[in-house]
Design a protein that fits this description.
The chain is an alpha+beta fold. The protein is 40% helix and 23% strand.
Length: 357
């Protein structure tokens, strides 16, 4: 018998309809439970699958779903879009197809962050593949209130997001970019959080705000995400191929001419498409990755500054210190002193001996 807390099932509903989203598995009273006042967890084992998904209402204008499950079979859900909406998807793994008011499908099947416009009056069909692991954070925003929710004005937004907010955008992806290590770590930590109850709600809201900030910042600094450059798919493929190689070798970057030959282009073209795709040169990309890693190592307080320099690819500590200071605005020693957690043990004898210099 269905739970009394379960609303009657509907064939279609708004993506912002919390009750129908949260209790879509309501035919089995054991498969859903409230974990917070505005949060409902679905236990997919009771539906023949595995894992969980959390559905969270963040006010009247945002519905968030945190998914870590395997559906037993391919499932189709239908929605009505009676107002302009914005969807933010961040996925570690997924196999989902969207159809919005046309036979054209949008496929989500790789680790990425994607911002999608859902115009008013377009029916939406979602097919979720059965037997495939789905690990994603999916947020649906009421477009008209999206900027105000984060204290933003229309002028702060990238042009295509501005169009989505004002209802003048067409259906489709506004932005899409692959996960870097930091975003993937943030996503995994959120999906696998050990927090419960209202504290989990607080974490979800904060992590969603982070994802929004990352996405909008990426759009501001990456022309192709704003629809202004790199219309050729081949150029994007070259840029991402180079980024993949540099991600593995940023500590000791290859000669860019050799990298270009390896991925099938010339150095000048690669420099242009990489800068257009990621907003930085290949040299600056490697520098940023080295400095970010150095910051993490410095906060660990287990390595000397010389060892940190060596770990991130510098032969001389002085060269590392100069690059770090120019990028961060303080020396490695100052960064460690001022940014390390208060409970981090940094031995007095090490400081006296100068091993942290």
């Amino acid at each position: 018998m269905a739970s009394s807390a379960t609303p009657p099932a509907k064939e279609t509903w708004s993506p912002l309809d919390f009750d129908n989203e949260a209790f879509r598995g309501g035919a089995n009273e054991h498969c859903t439970k409230r974990f917070a006042r505005q949060g409902v967890r679905t236990l997919h084992a009771y539906l023949g699958g595995s894992g969980t998904s959390d559905t969270i209402r963040l006010g009247k204008d945002v519905l968030l779903t945190v998914v870590n499950c395997v559906m037993p079979r391919t499932t189709r859900w239908r929605y009505e879009t009676e107002e302009p909406l914005i969807m933010l998807r961040a996925s570690l793994c997924c196999d989902v197809a969207f159809e919005v008011g046309s036979p054209y499908e949008q496929i989500f099947n790789r680790p990425e962050v994607t911002l999608v416009c859902l115009p008013k009056g377009r029916p939406r069909t979602v097919d979720i593949a059965g037997g495939a692991r789905q690990q994603s954070i999916v947020a649906i925003f009421r477009a008209s209130t999206f900027p105000a929710r984060y204290g933003l004005q229309l002028s702060d937004l990238p042009p295509l997001v501005r169009d989505a907010v004002t209802g003048s955008a067409e259906v489709g992806r506004i932005a899409s970019f692959p996960l870097d290590d930091r975003l993937a770590s943030l996503l995994a930590d959120t999906i696998n959080t050990r927090l419960e109850g209202e504290f989990r709600m607080v974490q979800y809201a904060g992590r969603l705000a982070e994802l929004v900030a990352y996405t909008l910042d990426a759009m501001q600094h990456t022309p192709q995400l704003c629809g202004t450059a790199l219309s050729r798919v081949r150029d994007l493929e070259l840029a991402y191929a180079a980024q993949k190689q540099l991600e593995r070798s940023y500590r000791k970057p290859p000669l860019f001419a050799d990298l270009a030959r390896e991925i099938g282009t010339n150095q000048n073209k690669l420099k242009v498409v990489f800068k257009e795709a990621f907003g930085v040169t290949m040299a600056d990309y490697c520098l940023e990755r080295r400095i970010c890693e150095a910051q993490e190592l410095l906060l660990g307080a287990t390595l000397t500054i010389g060892q940190v320099a060596e770990r991130v690819g510098y032969e001389h500590q002085s060269s590392f210190a100069a690059a770090f200071s120019a990028h961060v605005g303080m020396s490695p020693r100052e960064y460690r002193r001022h940014r390390a957690p208060f409970n981090l043990a940094i031995g007095v004898q090490d400081l006296v001996a100068g091993s942290l210099r």
